[in-house]
Amino acid sequence: MNLSSKATCASHGQDSSYFLGWQEYEKNPYDEVRNPDGIIQMGLAENQLSFDLLESWLAENPDAASFRRNGESIFRELALFQDYHGLPAFKNALAKFMAEIRGNKVSFDPRNLVLTAGSTSANEALVFCLAEPGDAFLLPTPYYPGFDRDLKWRTGVEIVPIQCTSSNGFRITKPALEEAYDTARNRNIRVKGILVTNPSNPLGITLSDKELNLLINFVESKEIHLISDEIYSGTVFNSPRFTSVMEILLDRNYVDTEVRNRVHIVYSLSKDLGLPGFRVGAIYSNNPMVVATATKMSSFGLVSSQTQYLLSAMLSDEKFAKNYVVENQKRLKNRHMMLVQGMEDAGISCLESNAGLFSWVDMRHLLESDTFEAEMELWKKIVYDVGLNISPGSSCHCLEPGWFRVCFANMSEETLNLAMQRLKSFVDSIYQSNDSYGFFHNFSVKDSRRRLLKKWVFRLSSSDRGLERDR
Amino acid sequence: MLKHQQQFLSKIATNEGHGENSAFFDGWKAYDMNPYHPSKNPNGVIQMGLAENQLSFDLIQEWVKNNPRASVCTADGSDEFKDIAIFQDYHGLPEFRNAVARFMEKVRGNRVRFDADRIVMSGGATGAQETLAFCLADPGDAFLVPTPYYPGNDRDLTWRTRIRLVPVVCESSNNFKITRTALETAYQKAQESNIKIKGLLLNNPSNPLGTALDRESLTDSLHFTMEKKIHLICDEIYSATVFRQPGFISIAEIVQEDTASCNLDLIHIVYSLSKDLGFPGFRVGIIYSYNDMVTDCARKMSSFGLVSTQTQHLIGSMLSDDAFVGRFLKESSKRLGTRHGLLCGKLAKVGITSLKGNSGLFCWMDLRRLLKAQTFEAEMELWSVIINEVKINVSPGASFHCSEPGWFRVCFANMDDETMIVAMNRILEFVIQSKGMEAKNTRKQFWGSKLEISLSSRRLDAFFMSPHRMSPHSPMASPLVRART
């Protein structure tokens, strides 16, 4: 028409099935009273379990949200405050909060924190700082579908996948890293860094110390960056405890080293505090140039001073913040157990996980064939017939068909139970309705491994997969 | 180490595209190091380089106090807290969009209608400008921008987008009016250099001129863009700061009057609440495009700079209060007019003229007669004197890409009455000295015979009828900002 190529291409990723499911849900959303047959939203990684804690804090601290400090109005100061260095009280409180989540094994200097409008903005800004158009970041699969937009769209940067598979619980391995790096090099693409999500979305697992050390070794030897998106760090509800990449650097005594200057963290309060509407994100880096540049770039997406002030008051109440995290984790743990149990009752297993607002669910045995077409068929049945919006693994760039991300923290217990019942009925009906499905009735884990090996031998090349995704 | 470091970062991270290393930040630095305070630092630098609207906060504060539910996280509004806090739909809260659309209509005297579904959020006008550039142009493409223009355009429109700005030179000989000739000249020049022009950016009312575009300039610009089939972006962030006739004509009005000759797909408006309401801290930027694809694309891009729902809720409530909005617009405009009249009117008496302005938060002051030579070097020298000796931070025309030396932008709405008087006294004394004028009579002429003013500042409550509270004249003095190191 007359627009930029960015406006007319599909790199915003909005045509992905991840978003299509949302659209279907919007058309027919479940409501206990008004629409009990509607679609239940299980594709939304939101934390709705602990609002009561926030609400009672707000009721006890009315000044924070009404532009007052010690009863005095500070509306004017807040309305005028647009300094991209951020409200000092807020950054101080945020730095302490981040340290608290990490069991105070690391500390954060508020001067190295850059505030941004959500982690969406933080990730994009970091990529703008670190890479040229055409450069690439390596990302372990499966990964959050939004990265295709956040990291690539306006920056012109590529994503090359680090393929992780169910054979080892989707852990990052050295061969996978090397293969991804070589794939990029063979396509004449310069790799500028690796981006990992820890805890992982969609897997719901914390990266092991082994993986973290592997990553540090790799970025050190290849002289590239490491971005660790730690936005789910406060949602770890089971052991092993969360280990931040910063902790590994500390353990290895990497104080004044170059690699330390190339490790950056992205954070947000959308998942840990359940406040996605408030758009609070942050970049943390030990690299002064990155901090300086990202700070300037944050002009394009600053955090509202009204919100900075409210949250500085909330997070400065350290007792509250600590209790919140602990209680929230307890509730997440319970929900997670409910989901896993519900899945088991339906004969479905989940990847063993200890964090996040979702489970990575194995429905390979329900596929008609070991293909992504079959995954889509199954997904459509689950959305339209069963009435659950869950996220198919293909939208997360998973290498193997049959995995789905199912969220559990964005609904009431009753709704979750209903969802599990619907799923069970669906699975039971598959087993009963068609003889050819009798094969699956005796499905075992051993079978799945055998099938997987067979698939590895015949699998498509990763570049073909890439084309599939870009549709 | 630094050089080695640089190779790990992008060009964007290491180039000067952010514009902050420019010499024009020296004025800010001088102010930062020595900020004026009436009692603690009466000889400090007074900030007149900050285009902020601080004159009507009392009205807003009163509204906030009387409407606790609007601050959703209070006890009154807490039942809505959860829904607001989890709402991250980039369409924005419907009540927010509706309220903003209605507000924009009121600012335009209800002469136009805005479709609330076309209201798209952005991270301030800063984010809006950048997003539109991403939507409309590819790296290497260019926008035409009439000079003098807001220096932030260089960063906002070109830094990460990699597009270029081509100046449309406007001159004092015709009061910096945007003429068809100037537009064509700039366009031709770009063509000759093989630069692809994708759009024209207008700022109406203009920063730094402090004038609203007249109908002729607007229609000329519109016809020009339609003919060349390029986009027309109208940055109307000062639309409610108009304090005198002739009033403000929005591109939306021209579109409504003459829809047939407009290709609506090429017309876009940028808005913000930072200037009209004085809320730069709340980061409320708006893109309003008549083009469906652009609206769609900009909305997706708004993910990178959504407005906090806490703020959306507050704004939605506030701007839905018709009675309040009506009162506010009227009173704010009046106060701005008074300030402007004070600064420009009085200075004219001592031979310091400004471009005849009717809007904005600043005067475009003509100090050409104070230059040692009509050069930009002389302008920098004069500026240095103004900062270091007169102790006022103003913005030199060169920072706005003005084609002629000697013009300065002087802001008047970011301080209280007392500070304003101190500033004006300083300017007066400087003028008396520079021109070798007779001091006593000039002062009398300046302030009028009823009042005697000494060089030290004095409260003049009787002189100013404005009821608003005295307040620190700049957020830099705010206790919210601690030392950065």
UniProtKB/TrEMBL annotation, chain A:
Family in the record: Belongs to the class-I pyridoxal-phosphate-dependent aminotransferase family.
EC number annotated for this UniProt entry: 4.4.1.14
Catalytic activity annotation: S-adenosyl-L-methionine = 1-aminocyclopropane-1-carboxylate + S-methyl-5'-thioadenosine + H(+)
Domain Aminotransferase class I/classII large intervals: 40-423
Cofactors named for this entry: pyridoxal 5'-phosphate
Pathway(s) per entry: Alkene biosynthesis; ethylene biosynthesis via S-adenosyl-L-methionine; ethylene from S-adenosyl-L-methionine: step 1/2
Name of the molecule in the record: 1-aminocyclopropane-1-carboxylate synthase
GO molecular function terms noted in the UniProt entry: 1-aminocyclopropane-1-carboxylate synthase activity; pyridoxal phosphate binding; transaminase activity
Keyword vocabulary terms for this entry: Ethylene biosynthesis, Fruit ripening, Lyase, Pyridoxal phosphate, S-adenosyl-L-methionine
Organism: Dorcoceras hygrometricum
One Pfam family it belongs to: Aminotran_1_2
Protein's GO biological process: ethylene biosynthetic process; fruit ripening
Automatic annotation (TrEMBL), chain B:
GO biological process, one term: ethylene biosynthetic process
SUPFAM superfamilies to which the protein is assigned, alphabetical: PLP-dependent transferases (SSF53383)
Record's keyword terms, sorted: Ethylene biosynthesis, Lyase, Pyridoxal phosphate, S-adenosyl-L-methionine
Reaction(s) catalysed by this chain's protein: S-adenosyl-L-methionine = 1-aminocyclopropane-1-carboxylate + S-methyl-5'-thioadenosine + H(+)
Essential cofactor(s): pyridoxal 5'-phosphate
Recorded GO MF terms: 1-aminocyclopropane-1-carboxylate synthase activity; pyridoxal phosphate binding; transaminase activity
InterPro entries linked: Aminotransferase_I/II_large (IPR004839), Ethylene_sulfur-biosynth (IPR050478), NHTrfase_class1_PyrdxlP-BS (IPR004838), PyrdxlP-dep_Trfase (IPR015424), PyrdxlP-dep_Trfase_major (IPR015421), PyrdxlP-dep_Trfase_small (IPR015422)
Keyword Electron transport among record annotations: no
Official protein name in the record: 1-aminocyclopropane-1-carboxylate synthase
Species of the source: Dorcoceras hygrometricum
Lineage: Eukaryota, Viridiplantae, Streptophyta, Embryophyta, Tracheophyta
